[in-house]
Design goal:
Elements lengths: L7 E4 L11 E4 L18 E4 L2 E17 L3 H10 L8 E4 L7 E4 L9 E6 L3 H7 L5 E8 L6 E10 L4 H8 L5 E7 L3 E6 L8 H11 L4 E8 L8
Antiparallel strand pairs: 1-2, 2-12, 3-4, 4-7, 4-8, 5-7, 6-10, 8-9, 9-11, 9-12, 10-11
Amino acid sequence: MKKKPYICIIKNRSNMKAKSLIMCMMLAMLAACSDDTEEVLDRPYYWANGKIKYLSYVENSSFVLFYEKDRESIFNSLSELGVDCSVILEGDYSEKTNLIIEKGRAYDYPDGCRWMRVDIPCQTLKDKLTDAIYTSPLMTDFYGGTQFTISNQIMVSYEGSMASLSEIIKDYNVEIMGRLDINGPVFLLWCSNDSEGNALEIANKIHKSGKVGWAAPCFHGLKGSTIDM
């Protein structure tokens, strides 16, 4: 029997200054074992406690990561799209954890990062905000509950080396931030707009490959939200 993944909920203290507190909810999925018989429908989903949990996209709302140095150019581009930048919800995005015991190539990537929520379709922002690091749609549970976002990070349970994991994920154009030791070795991955999908999509691809113990995206719930784990 495979270990039940570690579930970690971390409050990002640097976001206390933002209007809405962002919580990093690292959800770990059980591995897609051969005895998993549940059919996967054609809609966004994640695994929780061996069960598929379906999600829904929030139309015309997106989560954007960018570097502070690019803030002015990004806000200028948003103004060209007719966005009132004075009401944009944004904050610091310091997602580097002190739990990392072996640093990867992407360890320093979160330095100087900020996030924002913009009420513009995700693809429109990807096309317009060429300086943005990562853009993903806002989501709700399948029943249209509290909104939350898909961050750009993925947790992967893997017993092998960082080099061998790099071979497994090389086709997804993601990079490794580092290795943690939480209920066994877990690697933290970094996605960008150049990756082969958002963190939810890539986590499911890695999960279904059968080459790792499990893979899970990191969700960010707006203050007061809950996600079924």
